[in-house]
Specification:
8 helices; mainly alpha
Length: about 170
Amino acid sequence: MDAVAALQILIALAFLSIPLVRSRYGARAQASVEAELGRQGVRTTVMAENGMRVDAGGHETWAPVGIAVALAVPAVLGFVESGSAETVSWIVQPLVLLVNCVILYSNLTAVPSVTAAFAKSGDPELARIDVKSMLGAAEQGFPRWVMPYLQNLRHVVVFAGSLAVLALLAAN
């Protein structure tokens, strides 16, 4: 179970990279978004007024931290050789795999889904934002190594690590 626990800690660290990077570079990305909104003739406060941000606030922090904690529980149980580590791992690991599928889907469909959400918002200013340019500006606010390198590495660690955990559990 030590290999399973080590993989779970590695996956937890991959999730923690999200709020760490957003905490370090999110203000710069937010400034890029606001500059892009200004370029589009949209008031720069429209995102904040609608509870949207690209820094480490909100779900960009609590979700990955919560997932990391959920992974740490079976990992710690595994390191202390608790009999419940395997059962908890069988519950947590498939959920982590599914959540990461949702995250990947969200990443891949960001432009159309944000565009649709803005259109449904009822706020005419949100509806006229060029979302592709806005998201591009946010991406440019982060260092070049974040997207796609860190983002893709995180997905590889989560998917491969989760599959390895499940394979190790099944072989046990």
